[in-house]
Prior knowledge:
It is a single chain. By secondary structure, the chain is an alpha+beta fold. The protein has helices at about 20-30, 90-100, 170-180, 235-250, 310-315, and strands at about 10-15, 30-40, 40-50, 60-65, 80-85, 105-110, 115-120, 125-130, 160-165, 185-190, 195-200, 210-215, 225-235, 260, 265-270, 275-285. The radius of gyration is 18 Å and the shape is globular.
Amino acid sequence: MMKPLKGIHHVSALTANAEKNYDFYTKILGMRLVKKTVNQDDTSMYHLFYADERGNPGTDLTFFEIPNAGRTYQGTRSISQTALRVSTDEALHYWIDRFNKYQVKHEGIQNRYGRNVVDFIDFEGQRLQLISDERNIGVKGGVPWDQSPVPTDKGITGLGPVQLTVPRPEKLYKTLTEVLGFIETGRFQIEGHEVVVFSTGEGGTGAEVHVSGREDLPVERPGRGSVHHVAFRVENEEDLHKWVRHLESHGMMNSGFVERYYFRSVYFRESNGILFELATDGPGFEGDEPFETLGENLALPPYFEDQRESIESKLKPLTT
C-alpha cells in the first residue's frame, strides 16, 4: 500500500522573457525568487523558482525561459490553470485593487466550489487564479516573505488546485485514482462544463486536481504562457523509489529516478498527454545558498559547477 501523495509540489511553466517574468512574479505578485538556476536538461535556459519565503514544498511556481517561444494556442490536453493561495477573502479585495493599479487583466471575485477566487493572467497570458483559504481545511500553506512588496497577511502562501483540461477524462480519472491514489471529492460547473475535483493526502486547496473534460476544444499548442508539468509531493527518496516501482507495476512508462539536487523526481505522462512529476519534499533550496540571499546569484548543482563559465556565457544576465 503506497503512502498518499502529500499534495502539489510545484508547477513548471514557460516564459519567453525572464526579466519581465521576474518583474511580474516578484514585484507585482510579491513572490520570492528562491532559486535562479538552469534547466538541468538544457542548461542554455534559465529555470526560475518563485515561492514563499524559503521555497517550502507546495509553494513553488517555476519557469523555463525559452526566448523564441511562440504564443500559446489554448485547448485541451493541457494544464489549463494554476491557482495561488491567499489566506482570506479580504486579501482578494486587496488583490483586485493591486491588479487594477498594475493593469493586470482579471475576472473579479467569483465563488467556485464554495471558495472565493479571482481568475487572472500574466503578461504572456499564463492562466492563473488566486484562491482564498478562509474556509480551507487541509494542507497548510507556506509563509510569505517579509521583504515582499505585498503585505504578509495578503501574500501568496503557495499553490492551489491545478486544472487539467483533457478530451478523455475517464482515462485521467483512472490514473489519478487507481495509480496515484487520489479520491473524487466533488463536482462543480464552469460556464456549463462540469469539473471533477480529486484530492490527495490531507486534501484542501493545496492537494487538489480539477479535471475538465472537453472534447469540443482543439489540442493546445504550447508556447509562452503555457504550463509544462505539475509535480506532486513525496515524503522522501525512499518513498520515491517505491513510487517508481509502483508506476512500473501499473505499466506506466516513466523516467525512473532523476536527481535534481534540490529534490529527487520521477516523470511520466498519462494517456491524455499530461506530464506529471513526483518530487521529494527535500533537500530544499538552502544547500547551496543561505536563506538570506536565496535567488540572488546563479545557482548550479555541484555536477554542473565545472561547466559554470560555459553555462553563464550562454545566458543573458538577469539582475535579481
